[in-house]
Every structure is written in structure tokens, then in C-alpha cells.
UniProtKB/TrEMBL annotation:
One of its GO terms (biological process) is L-tryptophan catabolic process to kynurenine. It holds the Pfam family Cyclase. It comes from Marivirga arenosa. Its EC number is 3.5.-.-. This is Cyclase family protein. Coiled coil: none annotated.
Length: 324
């Protein structure tokens, strides 16, 4: 595991230096003040169109549980998930914090709790300030001007709007078979899977990639171990050719580790967030959708409005729709 996390650490350092020669952050076609990138593709009309296609009352919950010991990047120095009780029924009787006395506190019990966590844990969305390139983030915003002690003044998680759109599941593991460790899903894999599922992508879709890794979520060691993920080739095909709006996957960080190393290479994170303004959701639960072969659906999600943050917990939902 130590070797694996060393590789992850290298993802954030050496390869990006090479990328500085040719890569640059994206300039938003939605204007100099844009902070949400491709989520601008949504409109009231597009949301309504999807909602009118709902064909079932069944809801698929695409989020994972939060629990002590859950998978995270704590080995890189980020805090793990912590949970503790601040009040218990018996403790309230003993401490009498409300001054109501033992008899009243025995009658009306009271439990309170608190959590502490890294914002990129569990099912969450990455904001556009999460990764940058050559000293800038999406739309040319710089940390010198826009990063304060209390977070970013631009592209913070609070700017992410509620998302309602057509969603598509690309069940790579289900159609191609179990993926080898560290396998990089290619654009050819995506095209093959979509053909087998008899699905065509549309501009503005939310595309969810299933690797099958969510089956191991309760076992952090197995979930983190050289998991497969999407390649730079595949995301370029999705973004540049198919013009999708949002991405998601069921592994720790969308792309595979160890990373691809080549000239002018940038992480998938950097390409999507800094260059193309495409946000994405990580650590999703896609097993039920895949089991029921629900490949097209109404996708709905909203994240916590954590001001200035680089990411936020999210609870996405999928509801079946009529076939096109």
C-alpha cells in the first residue's frame, strides 16, 4: 500500500511539470465570470424535458455510506472520517445540560452527534477549483487573487447548482467483464459498451462509468488497491466528441492509478476541471442500476453548499425514464 500511495503522490507533482509546456487552462465560452463550466448546458427547459420523461416511481440511490474506516486519502495526510456522540440519553441524565432535572431527562431522551471529514470522501462532486494548471484554475482564476484563508472566492462548491439531466450508465464491467487491476478504460471500451447496451449518448448527458469497484467499498484495502478507472483518451472522446455535461464513476477518483506517464501528460482531473470545465462525481454506487439494466434515467443531485470548498458531499438519484 505504501508503494501505491507514493504513485498517487507523484500524480500531483512530476507529470504536471511536463504538461506546462503545451497545456493551458480553459477560457469559458460562458463568459469571464463563469464558475460552473459545462453545467451551464442545463436550462429550465432541459430540466423539464427530463422530468416529463420519468416513467416510474422507483428511485435508485447512487451514493455510498459514510462510516469510520471508510476509504479515503488519509494516507496522503488528509483526515479520515470521524464520528462521535456529543449527547447520549443516559449522559443527558447525568450531566443535566438543559437544567430540566433527572425526571424530565429520563422522560424525553436526547442524542446528538458530530462528524469530521475530508471534503473528497464518499460520494462527492469535485468543484472546478480542485485542480489547476500553470498557476491557474478554470477560466483563468488565480490563487493570488481569489484564494483566501477561508477558501476560494471563485468556483467554490457553493456555486454548484442542483443538477437535473438525462443520465446514462456505461456499464463497462458488466458488458466487457471484470477489469484487471489498474486497467485504463479506453474510448473503444466505451463505444463497445454503449453498442452492446444499445444506447446513444446525447449532448449534455450525465455519464456514469461502472468499473464494478463499488462492490468492495466496505473493505477500504481492496477498494483502494490498484483500482481501474477511465483513461485520458476516453474522457477526451466523451468531452470533445460527445459533448457530455458531467461525469461520474464508482471508484475512488475516476481515473486509474498508477497514472499514465507520457510527454505533455496531464491527469484526467486537470484535463476535465482546469482545461474543459467539466466537473465529476466520485465514489458512486452503481450496482443496483447495473443489476436492473437501467441504462438511461433522469439524474438528480445536489451537493452541500460549502463556501469556497474544492468539493462537497452529494447524494445523486436516478429515476427510470421512457425509452427514446
Amino acid at each position: 500500500m505504501k508503494g501505491k500511495f507514493l504513485i498517487i503522490a507523484l500524480l500531483f507533482t512530476v507529470p504536471v511539470v511536463k504538461a506546462q509546456q503545451t497545456e493551458a487552462v480553459g477560457v469559458s465560452p460562458w463568459g469571464p465570470e463563469d464558475e460552473i463550466g459545462t453545467l451551464n448546458m442545463m436550462s429550465e427547459a432541459s430540466r423539464l424535458q427530463v422530468l416529463l420523461q420519468i416513467s416510474s416511481g422507483k428511485i435508485y440511490d447512487l451514493s455510498v455510506d459514510y462510516f469510520v474506516g471508510m476509504p479515503s486519502f488519509h494516507s496522503l495526510g488528509d483526515p479520515g472520517y470521524q464520528y462521535w456522540l456529543t449527547h447520549t440519553p443516559h449522559g443527558t441524565i447525568v450531566d443535566n445540560p438543559n437544567g430540566r432535572g433527572e425526571e424530565m431527562n429520563q422522560k424525553v431522551s436526547y442524542t446528538g452527534d458530530a462528524v469530521s471529514m475530508y471534503t473528497h470522501m464518499g460520494t462527492h462532486i469535485d468543484a472546478l477549483n480542485h485542480f489547476g494548471l500553470n498557476g491557474k484554475i478554470w477560466n483563468g482564476f488565480t490563487e493570488e487573487k481569489y484564494l483566501g484563508d477561508k477558501g476560494w472566492k471563485k468556483t467554490g462548491a457553493e456555486t454548484i447548482p442542483p443538477i437535473i439531466s438525462r443520465g446514462v450508465l456505461i456499464d463497462v464491467e458488466g458488458q466487457i467483464g471484470p477489469l484487471p487491476k489498474n486497467y485504463r478504460i479506453t474510448s473503444a471500451d466505451l463505444r463497445k459498451t454503449l453498442k452492446l447496451q444499445q444506447i446513444t449518448l446525447k449532448k449534455g448527458d450525465v455519464v456514469l462509468i461502472r468499473t464494478g469497484q463499488a462492490r468492495f467499498y466496505q473493505d477500504a484495502g481492496q477498494y483502494l488497491d490498484q483500482y481501474p478507472g477511465i483513461s485520458l483518451d476516453a474522457v477526451k472522446w466523451l468531452v470533445e466528441e460527445k459533448q457530455i455535461m458531467l461525469l461520474g464513476a464508482d471508484n475512488l477518483s475516476l481515473e486509474a492509478f498508477p497514472p499514465e506517464i507520457e510527454d505533455n501528460w496531464v491527469p484526467v482531473h486537470t484535463y476535465l476541471l482546469a482545461e474543459k470545465g467539466v466537473m465529476f462525481i466520485e465514489q458512486m454506487f452503481l450496482e443496483d442500476l447495473a443489476a436492473d439494466q437501467v441504462y438511461v434515467f433522469a439524474f438528480m443531485a445536489a451537493s452541500l453548499k460549502l463556501k469556497g470548498a474544492s468539493g462537497a458531499p452529494m447524494r445523486p438519484l436516478a429515476i427510470p425514464v421512457n425509452k427514446d
